[in-house]
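During the reporting period the student researcher (J.K.) took over the structure-prediction task from the postdoctoral fellow and processed the backlog of single-chain submissions. One of the processed entries is reproduced below for the supervisory committee.
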Amino acid sequence: MSDKLVPSNPAEVMVIREVVPRTITTFSVPFARFGRIKIGGRGTVVRLQNGSLAVFSPVALTDEVKQKVAELGEVKYITALDIEHHIFLGPWHAAYPNAQVLGPEGLPEKRKSQNNEDVPFAHVFSKDHPVTTIDPDFDREFDWEYVPAHANKEIVFNHKPTRTLIEADLMFNYPSTEQYSKAGVSATSGILTKIFGMLTNTQGNAQKRMLWYGISSADRAGFGRSVSKIHQWDFERIIPCHGDVIESGGKGIFASVMAWHLELAKKGS
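J.K. obtained the following C-alpha cells:
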C-alpha cells in the first residue's frame, strides 16, 4: 500500500528545512492518497535543549535525512502521531534502537495485523490510561493531548520553547506547495486534489464543516474537550503533516477552524 502513497525517489523530492535553526527541522515530501490526491507528507524533528532529538511522523530515512539527524543530535523519541502515520517506524527504530517509540492505542495491533516490522512501544496513548509523563526532559519542553474522538486517534504536541504546535491529521493547511516544490508537478493539479483542497484549507468554513459533520461526528463533545485543551496552550506556529507550515498566527487560525467545537466545549464546561 505504501508504494501508492509515498514517492519512489524520496531523496530527490524531499525538502529539508530548518524552520527554527538548530531546533526544529522539517522533512517535506510528496504524498498522494489513492495515488491521485496530492496531500503531501511531513516529518518533524525537534532538538531539545539537552541536545536529544524528538521525531514526529517520520518520513523515509534517506542518506540525507540520516546526515541531517546526525548533525542535530541523538534520536531519543520517535512518535507516530496517529494510527496512519507509522509507515517508517520500522526503519527509524532499526536505525535508532535506543529511542523510545510513542503512538496511539490500536497502532501496535494494526502494525501486527499488517505484518509490519516489530517495534516496541514505550508509551501507548490511551483514553483509559492517559500518558502523563515521558521523562523529565521531554515533559519540560512539551505539552501534549491525546484526541481519541478523532477517527485516526490523534496525538498533538506543543513545543513550548518555540511555541510550535505539531500535529498530523487534526488540522490541514492546503495547498501542499512546499511538499511538492521539488516534484516537478503542481501541488494543486487534478480535480480530486482541487476538491480535497477546497475542504482542507484554513479559509472559510469548509474544513470546519468537515470536522464537525465528518471527523468528529461520533463524539463531538470529546473532540471539543480536546481542542479546547489545545487552544489553551501558547503557540504561534503550526506544523501539520499535510499542507504548508503556518509560520505565524497559528493560534487564531486554529481557533477559527475549531470554532464550533470550542463553542461546544464552552457550553459544556
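The committee noted the following: The radius of gyration is 17 Å.
J.K. will present the remaining backlog at the next meeting.
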